[in-house]
Amino acid sequence: MSIRAYEEDEQRWHRLMVEAQGGDQAAYERLLTELGGVIESYLRARFGAIDALEDCVQECLIALHRARHTYNPAQSFRPWMFTIVRHRAIDVLRKRTSHISASGQAAPAADGATDPEGFLRLLDGVRVLEALKPDHREAVTLTKYAGMTTAEAASWLGISEGALKSRLNRGLLSIRRHLEAEEGVE
Amino acid sequence: MTGPRRELISGLVADLRPTPGPGRVAGLATLWLVGTFTLALLFTALTDPFRPGSAGQLVAHPRFGLETLLGVVAIVMLAANAFRAAIPGPGMVRRLLLPALSVTVLWLINYVLGLWAPALEPSLAGERRHCVLETLVYGLPPIFAGIYAIRRYWPVRGWISGLLLGLAAGLTPALIMQLACMYVPAHILSHHILPGLALGALGALLGHFLIRPRG
Question: Which of A17, A42, A91, A119 has the most Cβ atoms closer than 10 angstroms to its Cβ?
Fold first, then answer.
């Protein structure tokens, strides 16, 4: 994306959000529609082939809706939006992990072999995974990519389920920190 | 775009109501701060008299006056940034937490230095019997009031808001004790500042559990 397009998006989203804060439904619909695509691309680029990508996108849109009164027109739009999106996405991933772990259900695996788009998503996700420690990367990969339950992944690695959960949580926390550092949040 | 997402967006659009924006957050922080100071001043005055001549000492002893002024600046920064942290944005630690903590540390260092070179001649004049308890008790209600107010926004890092809020709420009565209780740096550190810092820790803990983004 060129700097000009980047600036144009920023100004347009800013304007649409200000209009939406004033109650303009058409502006708000256009804004959410555009942001839905942006959030989807963002999540794909940073998390790769996570399951429930669409759930994540929708949760982020709901979060933006609930936080819309906190947007300050004097500030830039992107930092505000991505702070909410990052926070919500990590929250959703954590909840899904604990849900899968509690119910013993396996997460749907990312099928990079049969789905070319999925394979590209996998490659995107590698960038984030590379930032993790090997132990944490294994935990994230087995549960979030290979679709194992925490019990299965723990058995596979020959460790306790508690240890696996701890690695998984730390891995997700590292991803969050990595993304925050990347975006200059902290 | 998927069908469910289209339906969701339609639902959110239908739910849209005009919102005022976060402009009031500064006003809310000011209101909270004024309330916190008023509460602490009022209860301190009602419990026991202030140290005789303490107001005059602010002018007569410039270092004591500056020490007090630095305390006021630190508390204002802590309170303002506690509320600003409830608005999503980048650089929460770098932009909000560290500056407020730095000024606070700068203020508190004065009392540590005072162990060797106090701003006022140490004296037992104005001694209060329950200053520790007073600091703790007067600082508690503002913490809960602040948490209630901050939850109306979208605080991403609840513990940061809670920590700043707790420190501001706890150090306000501690600062007032500077005028109300005896001036002995060791006593100030152990009986006024320490309880104030403890409320900061409590605020961080409460913030972690109670200050969460809605939904």
Answer: A17
